[in-house]
Amino acid sequence: VSENRELQHLIKPQKVEFRSLNFNNTLHWQPGRAREARDTLYFVQYKVYGQSTWQNKDACWGIQNHVCDLTNETSDIQEPYYGRVKAASAGVYSDWSLSCRFTPWQESVIGPPAVTVVHSNKSIILKLQAPRSPYKRKRGSKIPMTNYYDLLYQVFIINNLLDEQHRVLVYEGSDKVIKIEDLRPGVSYCIVAKTYVPMLDRSSAYSSRQCIVL
User: Fold this and answer.
1) First and final CA of the chain: distance in angstroms?
2) What was the pLDDT predicted at 136?
3) Enclosing domain of residue 39
4) For residues 49 and 82, what is the distance between their CA atoms, to the nearest angstrom?
């Protein structure tokens, strides 16, 4: 029995946490302190904060991965959720390991906008598209993150003659089409953009850079 207790303890999953990008919500964990046996399986449950009963996530019941997609189960983005994971090895089950409370609307990381560059001779015209959530409208298109937050776009220009890290903020606002004027012909300019959520005071990572020579 003591061996079993020890194994229970050693295989118990560690660091159970939600990670979320644009409401794609996944539960992650690390294997226990035992060197992970090949036959270790994991079992995932979730619930809304305040509910007494846990729900099994069937697709993550007896899996070998260390990640479970709970996007559909956590689609009410204002609700707080918990996830938990237990492990089994050699017929022995660990105790459950619990995540922290997770509220998608407050904690999801917002991605950068998609940037398309159209240039004329002394100006650059940018088209910005908000990141999209995994949730769909009735017609099937994915709902943009602008439906859930008031988003601003921050557009930065990098003049390659200058220092590579020298990004100049040239626009902040909610327009989807932006014109940057008075640029010099023959100079290489790169554009990056971020999404900014004023209500949460949070910015996305930079978009991938778009470079052009006028």
Assistant:
1) 75
2) 92
3) 1-106
4) 6
Planar angle of CA 6, 9, 12, nearest 5 degrees: 145
On whether the CB atoms of residues 156 and 170 are closer than 8 A, the answer is yes
> Which tops the pLDDT comparison, 183 or 55?
55
**CA-atom Rg of the chain in angstroms:** 23
CA distance 86 to 165: 45
Q: Which 3 state secondary structure label does DSSP give 14?
A: strand
For residues 91 and 129, state if they share a domain: no
Contacts of 84 (CB under 8 A, 6+ apart): 16, 44, 45, 46, 54, 96, 97, 98, 99
pTM above 0.85, yes or no: yes
Query: Both 177 and 95 in a single domain?
Result: no
pLDDT tens-digit map of 152-191: 999 999 876 666 667 889 999 999 999 998 888 888 888 9
